[in-house]
Amino acid sequence: MTMSAMIVALLIDTGLGWPAAIFRAIGHPVTWIGRLIGKLDDWLNLEQAQPWQRRLGGLIAALAVIGLAVETALVLRGLLPGGLTGTLLEGLLIWPFLAVRSLHDHVMAVARPLALGDMDRARGAVAMIVGRDPDSLDEAGVARAAMESLAENASDGVVAPWFWGMVFGLPGIVGYKAINTLDSMIGHRTPRHEAFGWAAARIDDVANLIPARLTGLIFAGVSGRWRPALAVMARDAHHHRSPNAGWPEAAMAGALGVRLSGPRVYADRIAEEPWVNAGAPDPKPADLLRGLRVYRQAVAAILAATILFAALAALWS
């Protein structure tokens, strides 16, 4: 039932995203998870505690959030009826844990004004999806930032939840989103979260190990330039500070023939990151639109693979 439910969820999210009216009415499951993480951060991450105590508190918080998320999903799945009704209901439960449409729309909100030369709007839109200082970005910098966000979040927001959902069903996708939300909220190397967020960051690294590499392979496969995409991915993926984000970013850079990463300015520091696909030119606005086309093709490939898996499972049952 889960594979068919995943098809339902992919189709709904691709078509609708998470409508603003629904968000205003009930919020979003990820924000619910986020509120729990925030409470545990307040309760367990005490400023006066020793580093080992804060690390232990962070481990307890991570396990509590993941455990509660998975247990809730198990209970909900156990309540589902069989047949078509159960498949549709499970698809509705999976839907909010995918980010197919929202990621596309956020990056397109950068690509359109960038293509028109409206740098103010492009910088404003890119500031919604990356943490670097938008005022420091020229045209190429905005295009790089948006393309890197597209590649990395295609893994975190689409491929990874799809992968863990296909493997473990609804509990897998909900558990993954709990892990990913923990990392995004407390998995940072800041004075407050260096120790407390250590466990969340390490768990997220493990959870994304396969999906990040799979995302790179999908980008390479659908791009029509699989040889350079795979070559850049194999050569440059390890240049990224993250053990996982470099794989989809390097594949996207190779597929489009542009360079990504490199030095960037944040509000409080300058990060001297190495280039990915260093010998290639900077991306232009048209390259960002090409990147979005690769992303759409990747989503179509995931949907096609899910339909194939569901058909094979039906034949074998």
Notes on the protein architecture:
With 317 residues, this protein is an all-alpha fold. It has one domain (2-316). It contains 13 helices and four strands. The strands form two sheets. The chain has a two-stranded antiparallel ribbon with strand order 1-4. A two-stranded antiparallel sheet has the order 2-3. α1 (2-16) packs across α5 (83-94) and α11 (226-236) runs antiparallel to α12 (246-256). The protein is globular, with a radius of gyration of 20 Å. The model has no long low-confidence stretch (mean pLDDT 94).
List the helices and strands and how they pair.
Layout: H1 2-16, H2 20-26, H3 29-44, H4 51-79, H5 83-94, H6 100-115, H7 119-126, H8 139-186, H9 198-207, H10 209-223, H11 226-236, H12 246-256, E1 260-261, E2 264-265, E3 270-271, E4 275-276, H13 285-316
Antiparallel strand pairs: 1-4, 2-3
Helix pairs in contact: 1-5, 1-13, 3-4, 3-8, 4-8, 6-7, 6-8, 6-13, 7-8, 8-9, 8-10, 8-12, 8-13, 10-11, 10-12, 10-13, 11-12
